[in-house]
Amino acid sequence: MSSPAPVAVVPPLGLLPLARTAVDRGSDRRVAADLFEQIRTNPATRVMYMAGGKALINSTEVVLGPVADIGFGDVPIYLGRTLADAQEPAGTDVVLVTLAQEDPLLETDGARWASLREVAVLLGELDAALFVEAAAISNWHAAHTHCPRCGAATVPEQGGWVRRCPEDNSQHFPRTDPAVIVAITDPQDRILLGSAAAWKGNRYSTLAGFVEPGESLEAAVIREVAEESGLTVHSPQYLGSQPWPFPCSLMLGFTARTEDTATTPDGVEISDVRWFTREELGEAVASGEITIASGISIARNLIERWYGGPIEEPELEAQA
Are 299 and 208 in contact (CB under 8 A)? Predict the structure, then answer.
């Protein structure tokens, strides 16, 4: 029995750029030991190529090519079947093939290698869904080649969604790290933005942090904000989520309120925090005084939800 088509549910934060449901991931088909043999000879099967975190892109689409004579390579990953007619008919099987390096022979008809960050806002629903899924699962394979129990090299199974240790027979599954990200407002309805110590330039964004073991999402919101800014917040409200495969996070967007406006950045992760009115933020971004999170991030969506619409940015000067 095939997996049911996902129901489109729009969260309060709206349709987020990387939260797409255009692929039936086929968990029922992964268990077949001969899955790749079954679909390799089907002329309708399509292959997505990745190398060094980049996928082959043609204009605004992920390149989905036919199966090559060499097949699927050493570690193929079954991405699933398309749910709707797009560049391929609904029901098309798609397999991820990871290359050791970019292959210029594949760069036909204007195709190029690009990262998800570069092209996410250009991609349609199917292409974004495939790229996000492919990036996340390939990152896991790259970082989890050996058994954490005994150190033996593990073997991919179940369509590339499980790695089994041949020594102790333990199974290891892809991980996802939940992280909360928060738009904080004060009694004047100003928003708090912080600048991370690791960022270059004068970049500001909403505060965020990973959920710790044994911690609820709401508790993580309160703890992270206190640690990074010195503020005590209340009334955390969940607004939506999206995957962030850099390398394996799930960003959970919240709002929270505070009556305390005196801030103290931790000086380790956060170098500065500032309160902004809508007018102050609009002017600071438009003038180039600060930059804010990109359009594919949940942070940008949180900021613009508070702001009331898109925030205009200065056009980049043409490079010499």
Answer: yes
